[in-house]
Specification:
18 strands; 2 domains; magnesium ion binding (chains A, B, C); TIM Barrel; alpha/beta; Pyrv/PenolPyrv_kinase-like_dom (chains A, B, C); elongated; 39% helix; 15 helices; homotrimer; Malate synthase (chains A, B, C); eight-stranded parallel sheet; 21% strand
Chain lengths: 433, 433, 433
């Protein structure tokens, strides 16, 4: 895999807070509250947001607030801290303002920069625009006696230009006249991207932009960076947020923006394997999770029914019935079912494969079996899946993520142990090393 | 947004006419008829098509017809005029023929070129092939005393090579040895693209090519150009044409090819906001538009039913029933409904946001409420949506399109006023300026 | 179309065999068996796999087995032979090992290389990594007195880097310091790609990666290469394999990996037009194939019903009923039906178009008609489809594939004639020449 240059190899959560809110007694109230989040409520990356979340007139005050709050609380904050500065590919005024704000925040005498891991640059354009931002980081580092390249740079992808720029990162990052190796997160910003692409939907809802998310994930893969999806506006729609994260994960985009501590909790947990495994049944109209009752997986819906006859079985799915013998039924049910492994299951399989490899075997069959109950009829099913080195490596991703979280977020240990049990956590930390 | 170099910022319609039809008394009949289209039947860009729509043996005569008909009718034609020439990345003969045809058409003594805005070049290959075409434009301009770069160049994307070339336009357009700033439209040509990609479908229907359309829209965004989709062959299938346009619009591709004046009317109207707003209900099996009866939005289908019980409500969707209290029902119905705003609604929201911004507020809540009737049960629903600068900017796209149309197409004023009313049109022309 | 440099213009099947299996009396058993496949069971490209299918400890022996088995059976093998070597973009050790293995296999004194068409290089990275492999091919050719560029190189795309590299092939292949013109197949490898992209799915199933497959097909189109999809693991799921191939074909990816001779048979047949045509009916819930009974196409499901009334017709689809007159019914049924043409049908249409073109006509209407029976009601439907040069060219793809197969695979002649009849095969070989 492409070399990664930073401590965190995974980022689940990117949580923004306004830096200065007008009309409050303490304009830094939101910052102060966010800085004290801990455990599952605290994000992997916290972003004091001096751009869109903060009114233009409040942004100078926002810089002061960042310095004050981070100086006070930064040492104890469990995640990384990456303030978002103003920037725009089409406005030198905005870019210069962003530069000045970075210079202010990074002054070591003010005590914040030692707790700050980098800055987030929105509204970047083509790769030469990214280099302008990178150059300001370099000057800031040089002026303040910080090591060159020590401040990470994350960007918001919210233009077609920036989407295209991600295709060139791998070759640009090696060039001698930039420090683009400081790049850390590639974060999609779908609201502004939609504007830049001039897209229209009848209700004003955001398009799904699957190609953008693929290209961001690919750009991250090719350059050793981390891909993060943009904000999910409908805060009440938890199910929708989960579906979006699952869709992202299948693209290799394991992080997402969070707008509230509630979303942070959901997004911190989403890419981790579940505590308990579960069986899915494909009813031809989507998949439903079966109820587990004393080791039997029970389907209670109407779309699928099964009955035993003198000759064999009748299986009805969505109104169409098949007459099957016992082997055919087994085959059909295997096609209709799938198993979501728990953390424990995954660790088991990996340990088993590691032992087999040690014993000189390159591929082994992993068995999975259960009893299904559909209506009053119970059937046993069992399936083998071949595991080879590639299967093992691909299955490693959620475990590597878990290990990265466990190493970098001691404040979440208690919740992780509570979720998985001490034993499973210990074994998960040993696997694949 | 990337600088746009041409008058029109939006193009809804790209309408092709054969330049010379064999066996007709007047081989220019189709051209003559198209040149006299007005109002919603007239396209934003009219394309006398001397390539695929015209038999190879008729193309020299086609050039003469273009000159004749455009000289006579061009001054009065309400849209832009961009004849399509022959071209092929793999054939120098074809390219030279295209060059000669352009030289003929552009001769100022013949009276057509003053009404012609540019030429369309089909079957382009990689970027160096685009440059060959551009160079011929430059020579044509020079030979005929036209300003260098004054003729716009539009291309048909109908090969994998050309799709890749769109990724490099932004950097190529600035180079000193070309005049690629003349580029105007990027038009997908899915029939030939399907051939070039060697794709097969069982029925011979065209694949949907979502990635091509994304990449065309992105290429246009990055280079300040306009993306247009290819022809929709099934002329009778108006619903299908609408669905395709809606899908395109969510990708930022706001223009489409039209093969008939009937398709032109549909495509000219499609990206404009509707006259009246409407509510959608997601029945779990797709969305249906509700009937509006005296301010109540009525669902009359079978899939969703709602009844009040002593404890609260029973909501049934597609056979599965939930028992909900009043708050839960409200939440559920909000998730199931969506509103398509009218032009009037959009202008209202934008004015409201502009006033708030003037008063120093960066974000405001826009309320939307109605009464739903499902079966015999009526429920009031109300929702807030937060608008900030980014929401405002994204909502601006259909308004900008409307303004561009209104400014450039006086021949459509009457129909637009009839559609929206004088007052709404006036307010829409003021918003966002 | 971009110039193709190799004999085969299409590859349907890419079949891998382990080169050395531990614990067998004859470690080359699998190779020996595969080398003797013939007809539909034999792949277009056979890949003795000295990488993932073979345990690392067995790979030196694997090289010996390749030499032995190919020397003995290579002359008679009906497809091309392309052994897969070890390679990794991140490991110079692995790359050097791959180079040494190629040197061994290619030694002309050992008698295998004259039957070997090229090598497959897995785990390539960015384009400069592809060039490293290409350079080793050149050295191998030079050392062994083979013509420079005579060994074809195929690569497995299993990283984001390699996906991006495909966007630059067209320009890189012309450069003087490489021999990348030897490139032949671009093969997706979704298991390792999933790992490289760090994607996660709940069940561990592979993501669909539609964008990767599009980009591979596009890369092949732009550079005159052939796109092949990766392995389909669930060997028993024949329906799933078919659906995957159909999805690939609509992307222009006409080849697929096969893991068993059974999959080879399916994949060799899949892109060929069917023996008999068939009608589809869109029931609003997917398309079903109608039963053909004495020239009448019969629908026997529940979702669609049709009855004649005194006023006209009642057509019910999925619970919603329309009252239609005879013309409206005809229109509606045309929208709901589609025809999958047989090889015979396609050849007929192409011959008809060729005759029309010879007679000076650029576009003709192809009629298609049948009688539908829904319930007890029979209706005749007839439709015209306009064919022009572009339609003709796009319809040519499956015929060109057939011709390529017929020319290169005499061992399949008998099965093809049995499938289509002598007459159809002969006419298919004449069309489009």
């Amino acid at each position: 895999m492409t070399e990664r240059r930073h401590d965190r190899e995974f980022v689940r959560t990117f949580f923004t807070s306004p830096t200065a809110v007008e009309g409050e007694e303490d304009s830094a109230k939101m910052l102060r509250r966010a800085a004290q989040l801990r455990g599952m409520q605290a994000p992997d990356v916290w972003v004091p947001d001096n751009e869109d979340a903060t009114a233009p007139s409040m942004r100078d005050e926002g810089v002061e607030n960042i310095v004050e709050v981070v100086s006070e609380h930064g040492a104890d904050f469990p995640g990384e801290i990456h303030p978002r500065m103003v920037w725009h590919r089409d406005s030198p005024t905005t870019r210069y303002q962003g530069f000045q704000h970075m210079l202010d925040v990074a002054d070591p005498e003010r005590g914040a920069i030692e707790h700050i891991d980098g800055f987030v640059i929105p509204e970047v354009g083509d790769i030469d625009d990214w280099k302008k931002a990178d150059e300001f980081f370099t000057i800031v580092e040089n002026e303040h006696g910080l090591e060159e390249g020590s401040l990470k740079m994350s960007v918001i992808i919210e233009s077609g230009q920036a989407e295209l720029a991600m295709g060139t990162l791998r070759e640009e990052m090696g060039k001698p006249t930039n420090n683009l190796e400081r790049l850390f997160l590639l974060v999609d910003g779908e609201v502004d991207y939609t504007k830049d692409m001039r897209a229209i939907t009848p209700t004003g809802a955001l398009p799904e932009w699957p190609e953008l998310r693929h290209n961001t994930s690919r750009g991250a893969s090719a350059a050793g960076l981390i891909a993060v999806d943009g904000p999910y506006d409908d805060i009440r729609d938890i199910e929708g947020y989960h579906e979006r994260m699952q869709d992202n994960q299948a693209k290799g985009m394991l992080g997402i923006w969070s707008l509230t501590p509630g979303q942070v909790v959901e997004a911190n947990q989403s890419p981790l394997p579940p505590k308990t495994g579960s069986w899915l049944l494909d009813t031809g109209d989507g998949e439903v999770e079966l109820d587990s009752e004393d080791g039997v997986e029970v389907y209670e819906g109407d779309r699928v029914s099964l009955s035993e006859t003198t000759d064999g079985y009748e299986l009805t799915v969505g109104g169409s019935t098949q007459v099957l013998d016992s082997d055919e039924l087994h085959e059909e049910l295997l096609n209709m079912t799938a198993y979501i492994p728990s953390m424990d299951d995954i660790v088991d399989s990996m340990e088993e494969f590691e032992a087999a490899k040690e014993a000189g075997r390159g591929a082994i069959a992993m068995e999975r079996s259960t009893t299904l109950r559909i209506g009053d009829t119970e059937v046993d099913i069992a399936t083998d899946r071949m595991w080879d080195e590639a299967t093992y490596q691909a299955a490693m991703t959620p475990i590597s993520l878990f290990q990265d979280v466990y190493e970098n977020r001691p404040d979440q240990h208690e919740e992780l142990v509570e979720m998985y049990s001490e034993g499973v956590v210990e074994r998960a930390m040993e696997v694949g090393l």
